[in-house]
Amino acid sequence: MTADRCAMTTPIRVVVAEDHPAVRSGLVALLDSAPDITVVAEAADGDAALAAARAHRPDVVLTDVRMPGATGIEITPRLRETGANVLVISGFDLDDYVLGALAAGADGYLVKTEDPQRILTAVRDVHRGDAVLSAAATRAVVGALRGRAEDEAGRPGSVAGGAAVGPAASADPGASVGPEPSFTRREEDVLALVAQGLSNQQIARELFVEITTVKSHLSHALTKLQLDSRVQAALWWQQHRG
C-alpha cells in the first residue's frame, strides 16, 4: 500500500484548541472537510487542550497562542510529551509570541489570516515532521536573529546569544547554551538542509537516502542540541553555522 493511500485510510487526528467559539467552529469545519484529517476533540482553554491531548493522543494539536489559563506557548512542551506535533495559530505575528512558541517546541506558527488551504497543508506538513512558518512569523524570526547579530557586533564582550529580543529572549531557540555538540557528517548535512527550509522528503532526495534515514539523523541531532523541534534546529544552525 502506498504512503498516500495509507494517509487516506488513516486520517491525521487533530485536537483544536481555541477559546473563541466561532473561530474554533470554523477551524473544526475546515479540518473535517479534508478527507485525510479528522478532529478528535475541541478545547476552549489550555488545560482542556492538554487533557484532550492526553486522552486522545492526537497526531497534531492546533492551538491558539492566547487562551484563558495556560497559554498555547505554556502547554506546548507538555503537548509534545503526549506524542503530538504542535501547530500554533494566532491572530498576532508579534516577535515575542513567535519566538516564545518556537522556543517552547512548536513545530510551526501560523497567523489566522492564512488561506484555509494553507492551514490544511500546514497540518499535513507538521504531521510529517516538517516545519511550518507563516511569512509574518519568518520575518519575526529573521529580524530577531539579525538584531542579535548586530548587537553582538556592536558590543565587545557580549555573550553569544545574549542579545535581547523581548520577553522571549531567555528562551530563544537560537541561543547558545554551552559547548557546541559534535555532529556526524550526515547530521550536519541534514541540519544545513533543514535550515534552508527543505522538507524531509526533499532532504532525502538531495542526499539520496530514505526519509527514515533523514528522520533518524535529525532526531540524533536534536538530542545532541537538547532541542525539541526542527524549527529550533534550523534557528540554531542559522545562528551558529549560517
Radius of gyration: 18 Å
CATH topology assignment of the domain at 3-135? Rossmann fold
Order of helices and strands: HEHEHEHEHEHEHHHHH
The largest sheet is: 6 strands, parallel
Cα distance spanning the termini: 40 Å
Report the sheet-strand fraction.
5-15%
| C-alpha geometry | globular
Spans of at least 5 consecutive residues whose pLDDT stays below 50 are: 1-7, 156-171
The CATH architecture of the domain at 3-135 can be given as 3-Layer(aba) Sandwich
Helix/strand layout:
Elements: H1 3-9, E1 12-17, H2 21-32, E2 37-43, H3 46-56, E3 60-64, H4 72-81, E4 85-90, H5 95-104, E5 108-111, H6 116-128, E6 132-133, H7 135-154, H8 185-195, H9 200-207, H10 211-225, H11 230-240
Parallel strand pairs: 1-2, 1-3, 3-4, 4-5, 5-6
Helix pairs in contact: 3-4, 4-5, 8-10, 8-11, 9-10
Explain what you see:
With 242 residues, the chain is α/β, with parallel strands linked by helices. The protein has a domain at 3-135: Rossmann fold, CATH 3.40.50. 53% of the residues lie in helices and 12% in strands. The protein is built from 11 helices and 6 strands. The chain has a 6-stranded parallel beta sheet with strand order 2-1-3-4-5-6, with helices on both faces. The protein is globular, with a radius of gyration of 18 Å. The termini are far apart. Residues 1-7 and 156-171 have low confidence and may be disordered.
Overview features:
single chain, 242 residues, alpha/beta, Rossmann fold, six-stranded parallel sheet, 11 helices, 6 strands, globular, disordered N terminus
How would you summarize what this structure contains?
Helices cover 53% and strands 12% of the residues. The protein has 11 helices and 6 strands.
